């Protein structure tokens, strides 16, 4: 095939090779934004894998690197030797004396494999980094100031007192930052790169970003204070189309920065550490990396920035939330139907506060939104007010629910056309209607990839109480507990082999399918109730030389006992053995592991220990559980145990009897 049949973009390789570019200077006037090139070779390097490629525009050849998010195109065979592709987002810089071109997006793969087009040749190396910068200025038509000298750059704000060890080049986007309060001023011109272009090869970068959310100060396991902020690109250069967000963790100057940084303010950020985001924590619109604001980070307030642009939303109706995958994010606009009081919850990391909101919209569905810590305490809104949420996380806990995370935002009385329409609808029609809770997307409260389409189709019987299609039945549809026989039925509840191999002990790996049971405790193993744990790391300790020592060599005079309990529960279909840990053990027995251990080993108090175990037996609970695999054995682990609420159960049965399931009998 000939050169002209694919219309490779003439001159793009030469321009990329001789210019330091980012999206501000991309593309130049003589090159279209979407460029077509041919890939002549693909090489894999390192772990995690990086793919180096050679690209041709029909006349010249240069080397480039694919961004990690494009690796799947190589693995699937779409990008390979001879492929013709088009791209529209690229960056180019010098790194350790070599030209580095990074392709961030592949718009389309025009063909997977053809013979080499034209007679391209490798370009000779540029004379120096300085000449490359000079050519960049000439071809981009920009006036780079003479004072473009990193050695003369003075930081206007640092995350910790003292001189910065990370000197940044002058950013390119023109903006002056006058002094405002504690923020120092600068009159220098700034060059910024898009957030989307940050990667493991990035060096000497500066971003211009707006803070869209800020978390409370939290204490980590090693007792250090930190907080998180969510940043979104705000360079306002007219070219950036990126809406990629990036999360930043502030670990230095925490108290000072937490008080001075405000949501909606725009900052210049440079010198932060880039950390790769684990695949399981990556969000659909999130960046592949997180930022860590450490000792060398420079943060400058853009005081003369125009008023921040309003948030852009992509609202989804509440009744479509169950179709979203667990862990994804969504934007919701709804009416505050119910606001619960603040509750205090206890976890392995300590106590925290939360609040439940019930949100409804025109789809006549309702969903529970959970606020945590500071957001729960500071929330002030009356019922029936309109609230816009951005970036809520989809979770599946006792049915589908949404969570306000550190990267989410919430606006009460948003100034939106959709909000006005929703207010008019609710005042005229919605306030007199009934709303159905969201249904889970999985059958019978189970989210498992191990169910075949045939089995799913069998469960979609309109007369089945566990049917997940159609109306939600007062919370019974997805969250209705399974029977023990259903859980033990290997055909009904199976864990895929790949998931079984990756599952870890004590929740350390990927958890298996989740399910609910409603059953009675019939037996608790008295010999396996507690274990002596390290007060620092919670690992099991052993007695050595008069002290208690854990595998991490922490020593303590007395251990902190924790629950590791085995019990059997039963319902009319059978019985099953479950494993439970500390928090659930407290909920079941009503006392701490330390107190129970004291009763067992104190002379004369053993009958009280036995009485506590007997009192728990014969009690009925609703258990939220998951499946775990360890050493080839299947374990059923309790995540939460709640005493049965008989009044609520009666109400749910009444709702069920009034539902389509009952009336169709």
Q: What does this entry look like structurally?
A:
This protein is of the alpha+beta class and 665 residues long. The chain has 4 domains: 3-140, Nucleic acid-binding proteins (OB fold (Dihydrolipoamide Acetyltransferase, E2P), Beta Barrel); 150-301, OB fold (Dihydrolipoamide Acetyltransferase, E2P); 318-437, Nucleic acid-binding proteins (OB fold (Dihydrolipoamide Acetyltransferase, E2P), Beta Barrel), CATH 2.40.50; 484-529 and 564-647, Nucleic acid-binding proteins (OB fold (Dihydrolipoamide Acetyltransferase, E2P)), CATH 2.40.50. It is 18% helix and 32% strand. It contains 16 helices and 34 strands. The strands form 6 sheets. Strands 1, 2, 3, 4, 5, 6, 7 and 8 form an 8-stranded mixed β-sheet that branches. Strands 9, 10, 11, 12, 13, 14, 15 and 16 form an 8-stranded mixed β-sheet that branches. A hairpin with a 2-residue loop joins strand 33 (620-630) and strand 34. Helix 13 (593-601) packs across helix 14. The radius of gyration is 30 Å and the shape is globular. Mean pLDDT is 73; it is low at 128-189, 236-242, 440-479 and 491-509. Pfam families: Rep-A_N (PF04057), Rep_fac-A_C (PF08646), REPA_OB_2 (PF16900). Residues 146-186, 437-480 are annotated as: Disordered. Keywords: DNA replication, DNA-binding, Metal-binding, Nucleus, Zinc, Zinc-finger. Its main location: nucleus. GO terms for molecular function: DNA binding; zinc ion binding.
């Amino acid at each position: 095939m000939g050169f002209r049949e694919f219309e490779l973009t003439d001159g793009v390789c030469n321009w990329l090779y001789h210019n330091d570019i980012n999206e501000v200077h991309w593309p130049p006037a003589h090159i279209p934004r979407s460029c077509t090139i041919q890939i002549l070779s693909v090489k894999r390097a390192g772990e995690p894998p990086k793919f180096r490629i050679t690209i041709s525009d029909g006349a010249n050849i240069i080397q480039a690197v694919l961004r990690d998010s494009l690796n799947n195109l190589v693995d699937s065979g779409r990008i390979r030797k001879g492929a013709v592709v088009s791209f529209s987002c690229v960056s180019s810089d010098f790194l350790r004396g070599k030209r580095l071109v990074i392709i961030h997006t592949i718009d389309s793969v025009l063909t997977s494999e053809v013979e080499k087009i034209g007679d391209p040749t490798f370009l000779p190396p540029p004379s120096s980094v300085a000449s490359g910068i000079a050519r960049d200025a000439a071809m981009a038509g920009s006036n780079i100031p003479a004072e473009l000298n990193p050695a003369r750059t003075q930081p206007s704000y640092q995350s910790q007192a003292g001189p910065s060890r990370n000197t940044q080049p002058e950013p390119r986007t023109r903006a002056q930052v006058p002094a405002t309060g504690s923020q120092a001023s600068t009159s220098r011109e700034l060059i910024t790169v898009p957030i989307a272009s940050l990667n493991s090869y990035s060096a000497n970068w500066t971003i211009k970003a707006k803070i869209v959310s800020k978390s409370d100060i939290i204490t980590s396991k090693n007792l250090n204070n930190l907080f998180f902020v969510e940043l979104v690109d705000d360079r306002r250069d007219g070219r950036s189309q990126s809406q990629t967000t990036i999360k930043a963790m502030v670990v230095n100057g925490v108290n000072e920065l937490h008080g001075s940084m405000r949501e909606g303010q725009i900052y210049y950020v440079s010198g932060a550490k880039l950390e790769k985001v684990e695949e399981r924590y990556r969000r659909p619109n999130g960046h592949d990396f997180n930022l860590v604001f450490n000792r060398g980070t420079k943060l400058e307030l853009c005081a003369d920035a125009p008023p921040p642009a309003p948030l852009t939303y992509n609202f989804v109706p509440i009744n479509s939330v169950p179709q979203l995958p667990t862990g994804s994010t969504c934007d919701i606009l709804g009416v505050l139907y119910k606001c619960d009081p603040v509750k205090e919850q206890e976890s392995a990391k300590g106590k925290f506060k939360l609040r439940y909101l019930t949100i409804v919209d025109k789809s006549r569905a309702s969903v529970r939104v959970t606020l945590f810590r500071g957001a729960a305490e500071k929330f002030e809104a009356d019922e029936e007010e309109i609230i816009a949420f951005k970036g809520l996380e989809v979770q599946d806990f006792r049915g589908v629910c949404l969570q306000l995370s550190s990267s989410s935002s919430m606006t009460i009385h948003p100034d939106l056309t959709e909000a006005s329409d929703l207010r008019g609808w609710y005042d005229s029609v919605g306030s007199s209607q009934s709303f159905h809770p969201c249904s889970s997307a999985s059958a019978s409260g189970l989210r498992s990839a191990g169910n075949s389409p045939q089995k799913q189709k069998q469960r979609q019987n309109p007369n089945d109480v566990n049917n997940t299609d159609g109306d939600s039945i007062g919370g019974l549809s997805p969250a209705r507990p399974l029977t023990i026989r259903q859980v033990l039925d290997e055909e009904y509840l199976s864990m895929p082999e790949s998931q079984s191999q990756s599952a870890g002990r004590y929740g350390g790996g990927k958890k298996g399918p989740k399910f609910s049971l409603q059953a009675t405790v019939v037996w608790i193993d008295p010999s396996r109730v507690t274990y002596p744990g390290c007060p620092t790391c919670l690992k099991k300790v052993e007695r050595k030389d008069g002290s208690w020592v854990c595998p991490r060599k922490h020593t303590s005079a007395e251990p902190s006992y924790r629950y590791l309990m085995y019990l059997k529960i039963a319902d009319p279909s059978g019985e099953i053995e479950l494993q439970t840990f500390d928090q659930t053990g407290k909920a079941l027995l009503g006392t701490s592991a330390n107190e129970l251990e004291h009763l067992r080993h104190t002379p004369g108090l053993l009958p009280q220990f036995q009485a506590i175990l007997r009192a728990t037996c014969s009690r009925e609970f609703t258990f939220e559980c998951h499946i775990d695999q360890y050493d080839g054995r299947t374990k059923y682990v309790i995540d939460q145990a709640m005493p049965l609420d008989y009044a609520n159960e009666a109400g749910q049965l009444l709702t069920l009897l009034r539902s389509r399931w009952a009336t169709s009998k």
